[in-house]
Amino acid sequence: MPIAARSDLRTLVESSLTLIEAHQHPSGAYPASPDYPVYRYSWLRDGAFIADAMSRAGRADSADRFLRWCATVIDARAGRITDLVARAERREDIGADEMLPTRYTLDGGDDDEPWWNFQLDGYGTWLWMLVAHAARHGRPLAAYRPAVTATVDYLIAFGDQPCYDWWEEHAEHRHVATLGAVLAGLRAVVHARDEHGEPLLDAARAAAAAAKVSEFEALIATEGTADGHLTKWLGSTAVDGSLLACLTPFDLVEPGSTVAERTYEEVRDQLLRGGVYRYLGDTFYGGGEWLILTAWLGWHEARTGRTEAARQRLEWIAAQATPEGHLPEQVSGHTQRPEYIAEWTERWGPVATPLLWSHAMFVTLALEVGR
Ligand code: BGC
């Protein structure tokens, strides 16, 4: 692979920021991909990490607009959350289709298409991102209190329920990356204060959220680890690329700790080719290498002093750009099950390109490597 010149990398960072801003909807939502029909929605997961990259890159207004969109979406559903929490307290059965969705239309409406909607991680990730962004740019938080409160109530009641994972699969399991995102969100808001110095959460909620954090930490330590590393779901022995987020940036485990090192090594040794697979056995478009996960591996490597490895990941991602500088969701060079490529292409078209989350993670890694 030719080594991309520093100026090429810089150009791709700039064009990535421009692309993300150009596609941000007036509402503040980011579509997952503007050119891929089933991704013309805003996912809390993708969006929070896109906004995080914009915040890190100094595009604080873009991140603010996304965060205000999140608050509007959640404020509009506060009554629904109160109702769900009350039903959970009465131990009523609640269907997965009654829970909050993972994605919304760009103007904040419910998505009518059938989707694997019950996913909890995005509700933790937006809280984590909100607090990190406010600390980075000195942003006010008081206006977010109702949405934060509703989200915390939702996560306290349901945060450890089985649900679809980052890849919208395996609703029957409790996924460590999902628990990690929920934990990171709750941890971030427990001690957060607004611009007047007032705690963001009232004392009772803060105590309940802190108790959940401890409970989740214990759950992951006992059931979410095997052979010294974090696992794909509680009770599994496999790894998954999404576990990288539990190391960096969520700090579920200390970056240099044995569990973090073992998780990093297993993900790298099992899932890295040129880029990183989601997991072994993936069949989505044949199960290729994902740009966001390659950036994630590099992000953790940069953070743990493996600068040369991190730089290689950055170069590899840049080398996947199309001639117009667009980054896809995944590439098919080392596809695990090539026979599935045609099936997905017929169903949904070619691999989503550009994927805004890929651009965002490239930016995040470039900033880390360039530090
Ligand atoms: C991925 C999700 C992502 C969504 C939109 C799906 O294929 O599995 O993680 O949120 O695409 O980018």
Question: Which key terms come to mind for this protein?
Answer:
two-stranded antiparallel sheet; 6 strands; 371 residues; binds beta-D-glucopyranose; mainly alpha
Detailed description of the structure:
The chain has 371 residues and is mainly α. It has one domain: Glycosyltransferase, CATH 1.50.10.10. It contains 14 helices and 6 strands. It has helices at residues 6-23, 44-56, 60-75, 78-89, 121-137, 145-158, 176-190, 203-223, 244-247, 258-271, 291-303, 307-319, 341-348, 356-370, and strands spanning 42-43, 103-104, 225-226, 229-230, 289-290, 330-331. Strands 1-2 form a two-stranded antiparallel ribbon. Strands 3-4 form a two-stranded antiparallel ribbon. A two-stranded antiparallel sheet has the order 5-6. Helix 7 runs antiparallel to helix 8. The model has no long low-confidence stretch (mean pLDDT 97). Bound molecules: beta-D-glucopyranose. Beta-D-glucopyranose (BGC) is lined by residues 32, 39, 43, 45-46, 166-168, 357. Residues 32, 39, 43, 45-46, 166-168, 357 line the site of beta-D-glucopyranose.
Task: Summarize the model shown.
By secondary structure, the chain is mainly α. Helix content is 52%, strand content 3%.
How are the SSEs placed, and which strands pair?
Blueprint: H1 6-23, E1 42-43, H2 44-56, H3 60-75, H4 78-89, E2 103-104, H5 121-137, H6 145-158, H7 176-190, H8 203-223, E3 225-226, E4 229-230, H9 244-247, H10 258-271, E5 289-290, H11 291-303, H12 307-319, E6 330-331, H13 341-348, H14 356-370
Antiparallel strand pairs: 1-2, 3-4, 5-6
Helix pairs in contact: 1-14, 2-3, 2-5, 2-14, 3-5, 3-6, 4-6, 5-7, 6-8, 7-8, 11-12, 11-14, 12-14
